[in-house]
Amino acid sequence: MRTRLNECALALWMIGIVMLVPSVAASQDAGQSPARGGSVTLRVATFNLEDVRTEALLRDDDPRLCALAEVIQRIRPNILLLNEITYDVPGAPEVPADAEAGQNGRRFAEHYLAVPQAEGLRGLRFTAFMAPTNTGMPSGFDLDRSGEVVSEFPEPEPSGQTAEGRAFGGDCWGFGTFPGQYGMALLVDSRLTIKTEDVRTFRLLPWSYMPGAFLPRDPETREPWYDEEELGLFRLSSKSHWDVPVVLPNGRVVHLLCSHPTPPAFDGPEMRNKRRNFDEIRFWADYIADEPYIVDDTNRPGGLGRGAAFVILGDLNADPDEGSSFKDPIERFLLSNPRIEAGSVPRSDIAIEGLDDDDTSGFRLRVDYVLPSRGVAVLGSGVWREIPGSRPEFPSDHFPVWADLRFGPPPAR
Hints:
Elements: H1 7-14, H2 22-25, E1 40-52, H3 54-57, H4 63-75, E2 79-85, H5 104-113, E3 126-129, H6 163-170, E4 184-189, E5 193-194, E6 200-201, H7 228-233, E7 241-247, E8 253-259, H8 272-288, E9 309-315, H9 329-335, E10 368-372, E11 377-383, E12 401-407
Parallel strand pairs: 1-2, 8-9
Antiparallel strand pairs: 1-12, 2-4, 3-4, 5-7, 6-7, 7-8, 9-10, 11-12
Helix pairs in contact: 8-9
């Protein structure tokens, strides 16, 4: 079912048309929108929350989640991708077997973001979208070549990982110590319309479908790391890739291209994670080029049509200048892509020793991105490092990245 603009919401959007201050008008407070046919400015953000789990989302008073929500309320985005928020799979920790799946995005929006988290702040109203993830989903194969197939997850620790959890995660389609860990949620200003029936997900797309895929090989024998049966099923996405179209008040449709590729680390000389990260990032370049190998989870073929407006969002786990990524997929496929507006680099005005001003993580790398399509104006952007007043340190190992984007009217037909 779609979330539709009602007359009151549309009236709120109309406020502030004449005098537009981009850094204010782009936020949820401004509610600016032109009449159909004009331009719309939105604040779009991505934030890796660092392993938020169902138990905390069932409450409304978890201290770290309150601090995360406070950060988001200060940024006040209209569109927000959350990485590392558990997809609540029925039968997973804290999730009854008969529960409705995919409610954690809504819970974070309602229990934390809708409630002011500090004096002078106001709540935010979002519609949440979640979809299944590959993380923590058993494959039935010995994917890490440990000598055994691990298909049952142990009781997770409140935070961190155990050896048993890592053994389970090593044989899952995407690493997770329990089903649904490290999932994604997309939150959209409740005054916007998610075209739910047109959402495309690519969780099941086999890696081997990609022409020229950098599939790993045994470094000693040079034989494929995954056997023929495994390769027929092994998925490109470590979590998923989503294309979520959203209708703006001026009638323009923007496609939110969301993902969270595996870190290019925690592997061996076969480089199975490094190579997968490379091809997960490459997927978006292929998708916007409408490469014919692509097929979504409903068996619909093809990529994104020419002329479509889009924003690539997420923790892509690769830095164009440093780090351990394989063959620099960020620069190769995204930052130098003629269909992507990548000239404006978000930076922080808060200096932290050891970090560059464009680093989006506490581990000294730029890994989180908001990359619009060419023709979308970037009015401002930043990396948010301000520590919430209630915390001695930042509540995640990543910092939110935001950009104020101006979308023109729909193309004339």
